[in-house]
Amino acid sequence: MGHCCSKDEPAVDNIEVITSVKHPTPPRAASEAVATPPPQMTSGFSSSFPASPFQSPLPAGVRPSPSPASTPGRKFRWPFPPPSPAKPIMAIMRRRGLGKQQPKEGPIPEEGGGEGGEARERVADGAGAGDLGLDKSFGYPNNLAAKYELGKELGRGHFGHTCWAKGKKGEVKGQPVAVKIISKAKMTTALSIEDVRREVKILKALSGHSNTIKFYDAFEDENNVYVVMELCEGGELLDRILSRGGRYTEEDAKTIVVQILNVVAYCHLQGVVHRDLKPENFLFTSRDEDAPLRIIDFGLSDFVRPDEHLNDIVGSAYYVAPEVLRRSYNLEADMWSIGVIIYILLCGSRPFWARTESGIFRSVLRSDPNFDDSPWPNVSPEAKDFVQRLLNKDHRKRMTAAQALSHPWLRDSNQAMPLDIFIFKMVKSYICATSFKRAALKALAKAIPEDELVYLRTQFSLLEPKNGSVSLDNFRVALAKHVTDAMKESRVPDILNLMQPLAYKAMGFEEFCAAAISTYQLEALEGLGQHGSSSLWIFRTGRKPGSSQWRNWHWYLDLLPFY
């Protein structure tokens, strides 16, 4: 794949500051001295440096230090570069003897990261250098050989390898399957053991979605854990991109994007953040051009509620979100990774690139994607806007997966809209807000054009309103329809406890719009200055404004500082 240079932010020219002080330069030798001899020192010591009433004489044979004017000036460059988020990571890698590494698309090493870039491998309390005392029993059956016949190796990753196998009995009798084999010898900490347990739990819980790889069973023996899954023989999405000459057409890309967004929206509804979305982790079920896509590799996934944050750095360097490097992120980090994937789909190049891992991180934090070079001038404005709204460095302004499915670029795909957990988070914030903020949001909701309410209307209908309004029961029933073990593990239903005031009142569509909109996302849209001024006018007067009214949108946003 070709390299795409990121368009750097405007930088201040480097300014060199030379610190020096002007003093008379002493003669370099006696032959070069001025004809007038220096005054005689009463102490009997001689010196080639001119004497002064405030100067102590030097002993014979001792030359004075060079004057400040004869020393090289120290040069300082301004502005100073900010500290790199990769420095702690690289320091740990050096301590482990890994030296300087080339950028790779494996998991980002974290504090205590192991060889090969294994992420999240931190030394647990009491683990130390060995794994004495660790319980590596998972409670899985140990009769793999009785149900499956193992074959050739299909691939090898950071945490294990995958083999072809054939079912001997049960629902997969005679069918080929894939078996992921994870060595227990690599489980050197309690955390790494918990990672494997969580991966199996997530696979089992999410297996029902059409775009999630099917989970069949899990086994273990003294040496390994075996995870039996669906065999996808169509290859990786990355290979399919390369076979098409490096990029997809817009129409073909839409088919891929819709499947990715659907499965990620489902994961987020369950309270699961993948944290390693990249083309290599999407497989086709067969070699057919219209073969469905499957998401794989939940080894770095974790449970998180929409109002909580994670802080460990994991993922793959080219696809990691800025907030992950800053160690405070949520479900929006997956949307950034999807934006990078779609950028690659449409132009065949990475939006952020550098020769070193720390350079990639710096590019992610400080550079903007390049939308000027070919083929972007020939890409539709809707597609370009779609990618830009996913690659927004402010995670609060990024679209959710369900919102992305309602974007004008994908609106003609005729896909069923999934329930968005983001709605629950926003309604909870609205309920906890002051009456003034709620009134201001109601005014803002009236000023939004109908075209931008498609997403909100769909979400409102998914709550199955009664008599045109919804209450806490509607939210509870809608969530219960999608409940899995993963949702229980992530404690997503706990958010309903914070929406208790809805148990005593009903919320119509207008108020629902006021509760569910994000002022940060609205600010990211083009042309919202007029919307902001209109909403402020409505808030003050209670009626629709004319074209002559104008207020400051950013000042209005300052009135709504919650999200």
TrEMBL record:
UniProt GO MF annotations: ATP binding; protein serine/threonine kinase activity
Positions with biased composition (Basic and acidic residues): 1-10
SUPFAM superfamilies reported for this sequence: EF-hand, Protein kinase-like (PK-like)
Binding, ATP: K180
Biased composition (Low complexity): 43-57
Gene Ontology cellular-component annotations: membrane
Annotated Protein kinase domain residues: 148-410
Keyword set includes ATP-binding: yes
Entry keywords, A to Z: ATP-binding, Kinase, Lipoprotein, Myristate, Nucleotide-binding, Phosphoprotein, Repeat, Serine/threonine-protein kinase, Transferase
Reactions mediated catalytically: L-seryl-[protein] + ATP = O-phospho-L-seryl-[protein] + ADP + H(+); L-threonyl-[protein] + ATP = O-phospho-L-threonyl-[protein] + ADP + H(+)
RNA-binding recorded as keyword: no
Sequence segments annotated as region (Disordered): 1-82, 98-121
Compartment(s): Membrane
Record's bilayer topology term: Lipid-anchor
UniProt main location, coarse: membrane
Pfam families: Pkinase
Annotated EC: 2.7.11.1
Family: Belongs to the protein kinase superfamily. CAMK Ser/Thr protein kinase family. CaMK subfamily.
Record's protein name: non-specific serine/threonine protein kinase
